[in-house]
Design brief:
This protein is an alpha/beta fold and 199 residues long. The chain is built from 7 helices and 7 strands, in the order βαβαβαβαβαββαα. A 5-stranded parallel beta sheet has the order 2-1-3-4-5, sandwiched between helices.
Length: 199
Amino acid sequence: MSPHPLRVLYVDDEEYLLDLAKIFLERSKEFIVDTCTSAVKALDILHHTPFDAIISDYQMPEMDGIEFLIQVRVEIGDIPFILFTGKGREEVVIRAIDNGVDFYLQKGGDPKSQFSELVHKIKKSVERIQAVRALAENEERMRLALDGAKEGHWDVNIVTGKTYISPRACEMLGYPQDELQEILGFNRRSIIHPEDISK
């Protein structure tokens, strides 16, 4: 996790819940919580202020939590999004999952355990997105290093059969990219030395 507090935007039309969640989450000093009573206003805030995660109610005037989630995915991207709602209908959960919600948490019950679960969900969703971003950065760094070294290389995904071939490999082997792609994609054994096949 980050050494700095996570910045969270909590959107709910019930102000007392916003106040309660803010007090609970900020008590540990692990979070800075901004609150908003409208998803429409929240979208405007998101365009001007960076956040590590979003918590949203489902049933709100003007724009419900799933419509808000859809707009966030289109306009902001892959920021962790937790739907925290009193609506427990199956179709709401399915729509939320189909539209890219990170976690769905139902309101109700003991507030202490409920907010503890919310803390856990926020941390898990932020850790996951940080890991995904770090992996993408490392893959790009590796690709740039390999391409910059002017070494010929290719990478084959054994499961999908998808093959990446560096421009230098095409140049070294004397094949155009599409022709080499076909050779490596459909008959990889033909270019592997017989003693190396078992490896």
